[in-house]
TrEMBL record:
ATP binds at K253. It comes from Nesterenkonia aethiopica. One of its GO terms (molecular function) is ligase activity. Keywords: Aminoacyl-tRNA synthetase, ATP-binding, Cytoplasm, Ligase, Nucleotide-binding, Protein biosynthesis, RNA-binding. CDD domains: S4, TyrRS_core. This is Tyrosine--tRNA ligase. Homodimer. Belongs to the class-I aminoacyl-tRNA synthetase family. TyrS type 1 subfamily.
Length: 442
């Protein structure tokens, strides 16, 4: 995982909150990052006052973070830019349990697997918040304060503060209790572990704010209640909204796969294309949540969407900002150059193999034997045309291209010198209909 990290301190140095807002709370609301919270006026006052310590947790239930986590990482950074001190918690103990899902028990991963994921996710978190300066971030792991607790201590010292009646009313718990699968005591107890995190961080760091996705609200408020009961103290909580598309579908999915932050699980090319393809109805909200563009800049882009939607200026700005944030400027420039080259606006031979491989996952693709990989066969096999006769007409009319070179012989197999990286042909019909041919057996 470490080889995929983008150390981008320059990005942190250029990030700013928008000073046109009275305080960070007002900016968070404008960006659509407040779905639910404890008493709003008290939380706004706390964030507008002297520095406080706050935390957000990330459970290592996979080797990489995804776009849902990016919402939290950027929210952490915005609050840090307002002068407050972040604690980034990667859950070495909660990751061994896993919070309840809407359906079905989680598979329990081995301690060795979870420990490896902890290290990977810690590495992924670090570039997004600053670990230097007066309000430097700190990384914490809840395994440090849970692994030495005995079952008796856990039940006597922590469990006694939780009421079963309250616990079973939590949304996800209630759904699972009413399902055929039910819920195990292991997952049922997850909210106690997360509540313990808040209590520990309150005691050790004077942490007074926890935030996370609104689907975690039950677990988050378990912590506020535990601190109130044990320490007789009022602490704050914030739930950010779950991001959805304007049509109600789940955001952050592409062809059934999560958009991961790890370049090996989701290539920079795929990542960039995901943002570039955002709908006009969604792109302005994405700019608010996922970029540090000011209100003035985003309002100007909103006018572009309304008046000149064909320019796709908002989408290109979004794709540039987020891909640069996650993968770095060099990778983003390579992706843009590759995208242009694929459609005939650059040197296609300069596209590196990982990008071509990523493109083959996004475009129509066919695996052909190099002995029979003629243009006609390629056009038909990739679905760019419906028949060989149509393919021949396309060639005759000058509308067939291999690696951006117009072809006039549709029957002769492509020579070995044409195969990019020895494996790929880029086939195009007209200006915009693109496909990839791969050498069969590679």
């Amino acid at each position: 995982m470490e080889k995929n990290l983008v150390e981008n301190p320059a990005a942190l140095e250029t990030q700013r909150n928008d000073d046109s807002f009275e305080n960070i709370w007002q900016e968070l609301k404008w960006r659509g990052l407040v779905h639910v919270s404890t008493e709003e006026s008290a939380l706004e006052e706390a964030l507008a006052g002297d520095p406080i310590t706050y935390y957000c947790g990330f459970d290592p239930t996979a080797a990489s973070l995804h776009l849902g986590h990016l919402v939290q990482l950027l929210t952490m950074r915005r609050i840090q830019l307002a002068g407050h001190r972040p604690l980034a918690l990667v859950g070495g103990s909660t990751g061994l349990i896993g919070d309840p899902r809407e359906s079905g028990e989680r598979v329990l991963n081995t301690p060795e697997t979870v420990a490896g994921w902890v290290r990977s996710i810690q590495d992924q978190v670090r570039p997004y918040i600053s670990f230097e300066g007066e309000n430097a971030a700190q990384m914490v792991n809840n395994l440090d304060w849970t692994q030495g607790i005995s079952a008796i201590e856990f039940l006597r010292d922590i469990g006694k503060y939780f009421r079963v009646g309250t616990m079973i009313k939590k949304d996800l718990v209630a759904k699972r209790l009413n399902s055929d699968e039910g819920i195990s005591y292991t997952e049922f107890s997850y909210q106690i572990l997360q509540g313990l995190d808040y209590l520990q961080l309150y005691r050790e760091y004077d942490c007074t704010l926890q935030f996370g996705g609104s689907d975690q609200w039950g677990n988050i408020t378990a912590g506020t209640e535990l601190v109130r009961r044990v320490e007789n103290a009022q602490v704050h909580a914030l739930g950010t909204p779950l991001i959805t598309n304007s049509d109600g579908t789940k955001f952050g999915k592409s062809e059934g796969n999560a958009i991961w932050l790890d370049a090996e699980l989701c290539s920079p090319y795929t990542f960039y294309q995901f943002w570039l393809n955002q709908a006009d109805a969604d792109v302005i909200e994405r700019l608010k949540v996922f970029t540090f563009r000011s209100r003035e800049e985003i309002d100007a882009l909103a006018r572009e969407v309304e008046e000149r939607p064909f320019s796709r200026e908002a989408q290109r700005t979004l794709a540039w900002d987020v891909t640069t944030l996650v993968h770095g400027e060099e990778a983003t420039r390579k992706v843009i150059a590759a995208s242009e080259a694929l459609f005939g606006k650059g040197e296609i031979a300069e596209i590196d193999e990982p990008t071509l491989r990523a493109a083959s996952a996004e475009l129509p693709v066919a695996d052909l034997d190099p002995q029979s990989a003629s243009v006609v066969e390629a056009l038909v096999s990739t679905g760019l045309v419906s028949s060989k006769s149509e393919a021949r007409r396309t060639v005759k009319d000058g509308g067939a291209y291999v690696n951006n070179t117009k072809v006039d012989d549709g029957e002769t197999p492509a020579g070995s010198e044409l195969w990019l990286h020895g494996r790929y042909l880029v086939v195009r019909r007209g200006k915009k209909n693109l496909a990839i041919v791969r050498r069969n057996g590679d």
